[in-house]
Each structure stands twice: as C-alpha cells, then as structure tokens.
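Each record in this resource describes a single protein on a pair of labelled lines. An example record follows, reproduced without changes.
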Amino acid sequence: MNFVFEDELYVHKDTKIPLTVYWNEEKDEMVLLDQLKLPYEMTHWSTTDYKVGAIQGIKEMRIRGSQALGVCAAYCMVLAAKQLQSTGREMIKNMEEAAKFVKSSRPTAAPLFWAVDLTMHAAIKAFDMSADVHSVVNAVKETADYILASDLILGNYLREEGMKYLEDGDVIMTHCNGGSLSSTYGGHALGMLEEAYTKGVDLTVVAKETRPRSQGYLLTTWELNKAGVPVVIVTDNMISQAFKRFKVNKIILGVDRIGSDGGIANKIGSSDIARIARFYDDVHFYYATSYSTMDLETPGSAIPIEERSIDEMSRPYKLDAQDKKSKGILSETALNEWPPNEAIVSTPEKGKFVLYNPAFDITPGNLIDLIITDIGAFSPEQIRTLTPAIVENKVKRRLETELTLPEHIRFYL
C-alpha cells in the first residue's frame, strides 16, 4: 500500500487520508486515528488496555464505521490476551468475559462481533493444542493482523468493483460517513469515489449533514476534501431539493449490517433517502460495503437498533443558550438548555418531552438497486441465496494470492 508515516499515523500518498487503526509493534499498543477531533485536528490516540479500547475507543466513537470497528475490536482482543496471559489456565475463561465486554461496546455493526469471534476461536484452538498462554497471545495477534491486512486488500477489490458503476458527470449523494474513515482505508462508499476522482473521473458528491452527530458534515466532507473531491453540503431535510438543484443521479451509502433477506442497517436517515429516490426514475440507490458486514442468519427486520444518548440531540441547544448568554442576548436567569432536563421523560406524558435518538434504520431490499461488495455486486434477492460456504470461497479466492491463510482462521463460525 502507498502509505507514508507522519505524526504517528500512516497516510496515503495520493488521497492524504490516514489508516484508522494499526498495531504499534515497538510500543505494543493499539493506535487509532482520533475521529472525535476531526475535522479540526488530525491526530492519533492509543491504548494498551482492552477495556479502555472498548469504551473510549469504540463506545465513545474515536473509531466508528463497521469495518474499522471490526479491526479495532480484534486488536482489543489482542490487548485482552496480553493482559490476561498471567491468569494461566483461567486465561480462556477470562478472555471469554473480555470478548463479551468488547461486544457490548456497540450493538449493531456486524464486523465487531465477527472479529471478536474470530480472535476468540483462534485463542481457544491455540490453547487446546498447547495449553501455552504465549501461543494464545500469538494466535490472537496473528488473527487480528490478518483481519487488518485482509480488509486493506479487500478494500482495493471493493473500489475496483464500485468504479464499474461510476461515470464522468455523476452527482452522488452520500449519508453519514460510509468511507475510508469507517474502514481501515478506502472502504465503503467513499473509498471508490476518492480513488475514481484521483484517477480522473469527473464527479461531484452531495454530502448530507447526518444529525445528530453530523458525521456527514464533519467526517465525510473532511475525507473527500483530503482527496480533492468537489463537495456540496446539505442538511438532512434537503434531499428532494438537492436532487432538483444538483441533478443527483446516484446514491451510494456505506453499510453497518446486511441482513439475510437483503435488508440493510445503516445510519438513521438512510431509508428516508431510499424512499424518496423511488420517486425518481433516473436515480440509482446503491450500498457499498465489505462482505464482513453480511449477517446471513438475521433478517433486516430483526437487526437490533442502537439508541444513543439524548445528549447528542440536545447539546447544540445547550451551547446555543450559553452563547446567547455570553453575548447578553439572554439574561442570566434564562434557561440554560432546551428542553429543560427536568422535563425530559422516557415515555410520552402531558407537559413533558421524549427525546428519541436511534442510531440506525433498516432499508428493505425492495428499495435497493444493488449492494456492491469486495466479493462482487449483488441484488438484495441474490443476498438471500448466499451461504457461509459460498462467501468463504469467494473471500479465499480474493485473498489466496496475496495472503497466507492462518490455519486457525475461519470466516464464519
């Protein structure tokens, strides 16, 4: 890969976009691109503690996006193995508890669970073969490194597949941040757009703000700007007007989880765009993702929907009140927030407020034209025909010429 090392981060020479996660061999620690500081500052964050990695890294969203979460979770398990090797014969039991802890950090993105299960499978097999804790640590580390390397390789296949559907003059709407920042590098919807643009394809991106965390406004625009891609920023209630004003002809979104029926869980608001797109005959609706987001056992309707803190919704209005007080627009006795905290309840009642903050929604398969992945492009109907064996064979064919498959790796458990 074409990366240079700058300020503790690996940055791509062409797009100027960094890796989101890697393992520092010298310091024996996990390093993340600190996405909480983007777009204002590009810097790293690191830890040697798996609980800190799971809470401050994953739950607090220093790293986010399905594939990136998977790689980070794998390295959290490496940290767990290193921390728990002193427990001897109790190591596997303790690692299983660590696996539950890491899995509890975020509930929706499939690669997080997939990566934890792969590392745990490797740990158990290594322990069963030798009962040697050092062998367990090595097996888990080898598995995590393989997950990182395979994501980088498969990301290239995803970009190649996706560029088949891009043409000069395309105006493409995105939502949230389904891109390089949500993979290790160059994945999901934006990776293919960034590479296509650096190779001369004339395209423009319309990026939706994506409240309440505004990843579209903060992360997608930062990432695309790094690669030089022309960007139009719109708020979440401007879909139809943006179609009309900018002649949007394609929508390409990233993925958190593909259900067994072809339904897809992605950032809240994704299904809104899909429904509006159905009114336009000349607008194509695509998802782009890694195979690791496929959940071949759970239909879209059964995918759990994470509900996040209501502070994500209310914080801008607290800051607004503070700003107006500091400028003398509001008196010192004015409210400090809206709604008042004492008026917020969990179920509707007279004179009170409920703040509902789901992180994802489900787009049913009948609203999706195509799901572009690193093992090929599929219609939602074709997703229903896939089995773990079919997927595993497709992945192996893509990787076998570039990576040696560790014997304890299994793609599906």
Remarks:
- DSSP finds twelve helices and 15 strands in the chain.
- The chain has a mean pLDDT of 93.
